[in-house]
Design brief:
Length: 494
């Protein structure tokens, strides 16, 4: 490395690649501040507090930890385990989650779990086994213990991180988009215990200069200087952020680093792209990397389907009288069927029948379907009110019980619209990796109603894919709450 010091670059132009790095670096990442062992501790904290609160309640107001109590503790522990990479305050680290937000999160999550456990106990007759006084005390002790434990752990986390040892020095090979993004994320994650010293790269042009201006560390030299720098500065971690097309360069770097003790990690350039549930896995003992996958694998899928069944059954019981009145109003207002069936794409792109209260004088389900527009003469008088208040969507809770839909997910479009937009919008069909929803992330973020331009549909699809990346039960509950709030004031519904 030259003695003149680190190289410098002129200010970056806002080229698309630079803008993408800036936006992705500013995106919050759940648990990004924590080292793996602290993240594991944070993930287990809530389930452990539920179990401890239950055992304490059983000791003080019951007959002690009986077999029935232990079974209940196991069920509560499994239900409380957070999903992998779930958004929201899934870990107690960082200062961005304020106390009120954390309290609301814990209370809503606990209410959902308590209702699920109560319903299961009632259906199986298991509920009568427990002392009512013990369960009553557990209802307030559980969220209180979770809140107290999170606040304590948030205070002691920096000290726990220091016990792990001094920060490990690291360098990134490749001053490009994914390398710069990794550097910015490391700069915002002090609990990772990694001290980034700089970058190494040979090929820099105007585009590279723009990216370099966003890097929190400087370019320390070329690839030839890398081995000596690693030895001199006792670098422990090396992140290879070279393009996958640069196989000869990668092999040469790996060969040059054989005389060092540094741990080497490959950061494929695919990870700067728009991954959906990107993660590593093993198939037949061979490591594979997920580029596009559903968030509902394993236990996450069980929780999603279980919550759908429970909520849909409860909602249908509560709205049965209302659905009867709506059906009568539709029948008296105009001739035609009360329930309108239309073909939509469901899970994995399979065609399904979706139910709605009929709100138009026509029941279109062909190759060409015209979307409802403002002052559309096809909409009936009752239908206009139903569409404005989303009451026409109520029969879709039956679709949820059938397994065709979910309460929250990307809204299903008519087959004719799917065939049109899948050809012009990149990633359009990815939204069908999950069941379509009665409501969705796009609808509560202003993308409801007519999509008369390609830009409006693109905005809706972007939000649908964002939901797939960041799904959690907490996010589903937020969407449901915002949907209820929007029903009577959304001017986009017509």
């Amino acid at each position: 490395m030259a003695e003149s010091g680190p190289l410098s670059w002129p200010p970056a132009r806002e080229i698309p690649e630079v803008r993408e790095i800036r936006e992705r670096a500013e995106t919050p990442v759940a648990g990004a501040d924590a080292s793996p062992w602290l993240s594991a501790l944070g993930r287990l904290l809530d389930p452990l507090m539920l179990v401890l609160a239950l055992l304490l309640a059983a000791w003080l107001w019951g007959d002690g930890p009986s077999p029935a109590v232990l079974v209940l503790a196991l069920l509560a522990f499994l239900l409380a385990l957070p999903g992998q990479g779930s958004p929201g305050p899934a870990w107690p680290f960082g200062v961005r989650h304020r106390l009120l937000h954390l309290m609301a999160y814990l209370l809503v999550r606990w209410c959902w779990m308590a209702c699920a456990l109560a319903a299961l106990g009632w259906l199986t007759g298991f509920l009568a086994v427990f002392d009512a006084r013990m369960l009553g005390h557990w209802l307030w002790m559980a969220p209180s213990a979770q809140l107290a434990a999170r606040l304590v752990l948030q205070r002691v986390t920096p000290g726990l991180a220091r016990l792990h040892g001094p920060p490990r020095p690291a360098v990134i090979v490749g001053l490009n988009a994914q390398g710069t993004l990794l550097a910015q994320r490391l700069a915002r994650s002090p609990l990772e215990g990694i001290e980034l010293l700089g970058f190494f790269d040979d090929r820099m042009g105007e585009r590279g200069a723009g990216v370099a201006a966003l890097a929190p560390q400087s370019l320390e030299g070329g690839l030839r200087e890398l081995p000596e720098y690693v030895k001199r500065h006792r670098v422990q971690l090396i992140y290879l952020s070279l393009p996958m097309s640069s196989s000869p360069r990668i092999l040469q770097v790996l060969d040059d680093l054989k005389d060092t003790t540094a741990s080497i990690y490959f950061v494929p350039d695919m990870f700067i792209t728009d991954l959906i549930q990107g993660r590593s896995d093993k198939v037949g003992g061979v490591t594979v990397i997920s580029v596009c996958d559903t968030p509902f694998r394993g236990w996450a899928g069980v929780r999603k389907r279980g919550s759908d069944m429970l909520l849909a059954a409860l909602i249908l019981v509560l709205i049965a009288p209302l659905m009867g009145l709506v059906a009568l109003a539709v029948r008296l207002d105009s001739s035609g069927p009360v329930i309108f069936r239309q073909r939509r794409y469901g899970l994995d792109g399979q065609q399904i029948w979706v139910y709605k209260f009929r709100s138009m004088r026509v029941t279109e389900d062909g190759d060409q379907i015209r979307q409802a527009q403002r002052d559309d003469d096809r909409v009936t008088r009752v239908g206009a009110f139903l569409r404005r208040t989303s009451l026409d969507e109520l029969p879709q809770f039956i679709n949820v019980l059938q397994g065709r839909m979910s309460i929250v997910g990307p809204r299903p479009h008519a087959v004719a619209h799917n065939e049109l937009y899948r050809k012009v919008i990149k990633g359009y069909m990815v939204r069908h990796k999950v069941r379509p929803g009665v409501t969705g992330w796009a609808q509560v973020n202003g993308q409801r109603g007519e999509t008369d331009t390609l830009a409006k549909m693109q905005a809706r699809i972007d939000l649908d894919l964002d939901y797939l990346r960041h799904w959690s039960l907490w996010l589903d509950l937020r969407i449901i709450a915002r949907t209820v709030a929007l029903v009577f004031k959304d001017v986009r519904a017509y």
